[in-house]
User: Fold DUF2339 domain-containing protein from Ureibacillus galli.
Amino acid sequence: MQNDIEKRVAFLEKEVHNLRLELHQLKSATKDVEQPFPIVMKETSEKGHKEIQRVNNHTNDSVENIRPKNQTIQKPKERPQKVQQPMKQPLPPKKQKSFEEIIVWSLPKIFMVILVLGVLWGLKLISDFGLLSTVVKLVLAYGLSIGLFIIAFTMDKKKKDTTQVLTVVLYGGTFIIGILTTAAGAIIYEVLGLYFALFITFIYIAYGVSICYVKKNEVLSIFVIFTSLLLPYLLEYMNFNGPSILLYVLIIFIAMQLVFIKHIQKIALYISYSFSLLAIMIIWILNQEQPWFYLASAIILNVFLLYVWWHQNKLRGKTIALHEGLLFSLSGLTIAMINLISNEPELALLSLTIVYMVFAYYAYQSKMKQLVDVMGTLSLLSLFNLLLALELSSSLDIVLFPLCAFISVMLAIRIGAKMMKITYSILFTISVFSHLLLSDVKPFWTIEHANYLFILLYLIVIFLFEQKHQNVQVEGKAKVNLSFSGDILPIVITGFFFYYVNIFNYSYISQEYPYATYILLAFMMFVSFFMPKHLTGRLLKYVFIFAFAISMINLLPSHYVFGMDIWLNIIARLVYVCSIIAFMVDILMKGYFYQTWIRKSKIDLDGLHTVCILAVMMLLYGLLNQLQFDQLISPIFVIASKTILLFIVSSISLWISTIQPFRKIKVMGYVVIVFAIFKLVFFDLSSLNLFIRAILFISIGGLGLFLSNKLLSKKGKGEE
Assistant:
């Protein structure tokens, strides 16, 4: 009896050890995921528990040895007991092809092209030497085509991954060799009858579409649709009428849609649609008759494009914005082509508007908001083109062209399509430049003049809309690159605004100089410092400062003006003087400009104040010259005023140097006062009468004494 108990205990210990090993393996496999015990382990543990309880009735010593081991394998009460559904294993990540694998898989395509070229050149060489007759050459070419198909079909039965690419290439080689052979036999050698060649071509095209349907190779589909759409030009050569050729284009395009729907070949869809539209346009150019057939064909193609695109993009991926942009661009190209085909496209454009509205409704029902935006924008564009076609106004196109480009840019921002945004931004820029070159602001109440304001509004809305959709945050002192929407676009908007102000100034205010523009520029420069940074960007205020400096240089010399320009000239000079003085006072008082801009930058305040003082002195000097040039004051008063101006500038410079440690300003003050005294003694005495001379000397003397007292007081405090 004792031996049986010992054997059973040894058996249970072995089972417990195995269970521990299994538990450890499960934990290492699932890591952080907690899984229930397998059924086998549960049954084994329960069986062991019963055996131990049965042994416990016979001997207490064995129970004491067994109980701790049994407790280590018992499952907690809170552990779930349902284990019927095994845990789903995660799918292994898709292995990406290496560069070597890409090269290896591309070699069959390259070699097939080489083979086709070799066959063509070989046939040409045989023809030149007269070795074989034309019929024999065509038979050999068709034999090669059929042979490639047999080889591909035989290899396809092996169902090996390594032969799939080669079989697709061989199927494609069968198609192209057959098409080229048929075209050569009918057009070049004139051995095959045109209708018989057409029949053979249709057989090969049906074969190509069938292979594309069976094989899910997008490159093969693109190749087949491209080659098939060369046949319309053969039909044109055979003097088929336009509607028959259009019917062929529609049949080929619709047949390929079955392939695109089955295998989700998006790029092939876009390429086939583009070449189909191109075929319709070329056939129209060659025939120039019955435009309704061509308009209806374009609409039918566009409807199939929308339907197949809808089917392919039900599941929205990461590149959905790119595909939405391509859908918009191809549909917009269709609208443009309809306008080119017919001079009366009203009904066709109305049909497209209805089609886009219907698709927008279905997109809304499917809760595809971005597609609703695309279809709604296309509806607006087709409606605008309908209004243009109705010729309600001769100047309506001036407004609608920039408006269409503006709406397209807004849609690109809305759906986040970068390529679409770049493309339509270029179109918008072209439309704006066309308006700037061809339209004027005179007379005042015209559509051309109003469109300047419309374009300015478009630019502002684009900027604000882009800022709303741009969620770029800078943390800490991270370096941020300049962005077009945040930093360059405010400069573009400001440049367009001042261009409009400038031409408005020359048209209605000033005749020679843009004084109104100068005044507004100074005002806008100060406003830009108070505006939020996300509205002005990081470059606009520096552009304003540069433009302000250039305008100030233009105001330094005397201008030959008359009429209202005389007073605008004076006002502009005074505005610039007051602007610089206000800027200097704010910095000296450590006001808004100093706290928000100067304090954070590494600008030499000594040199900055020196430049500002010289600029004010030169502007006032130029103002006095302008007053004398316009004969508003006498020359004697101008001479005295210039001397007083020099002494005032030197006094202010030296006074500033007493309250701030500005060495450059102090040196400039001494230089200016020496120059003022030299001018007073050697030039002014001989030019002024006694009364003016007395007033001048009294003023300068009093000013000099006041300044000397300030300087001496400052020096005395420094010595103490």
